[in-house]
Amino acid sequence: MKKLLITITLVLFSSSAFAGSCLKLVGKVDEKMQQVMELRDAGKKAHEEGDHAKSEELLIKALNLFKS
Q1: Would you say 36 and 66 are in contact if contact means Cβ atoms under 8 Å apart?
Q2: Which of 10, 42, 46, 67 could cysteine-pair with 55, CB 3.0–4.6 Å?
Q3: Which residues of the chain fall short of a pLDDT of 50?
């Protein structure tokens, strides 16, 4: 019985500790999305200006952010 109570207590407290990391994760996602959008916009602009090599370089960098 004692082991069961200890286990339940640990599970309850550990789940609330993990819940605190949600906002940190949201911040990290927002930061990555901002970086991707900046690279995307710069890549699109380079494409429209005819600099396709630069456009491709920027867009590949944006895609690589999804892998990291």
Answers
A1: yes
A2: 46
A3: none
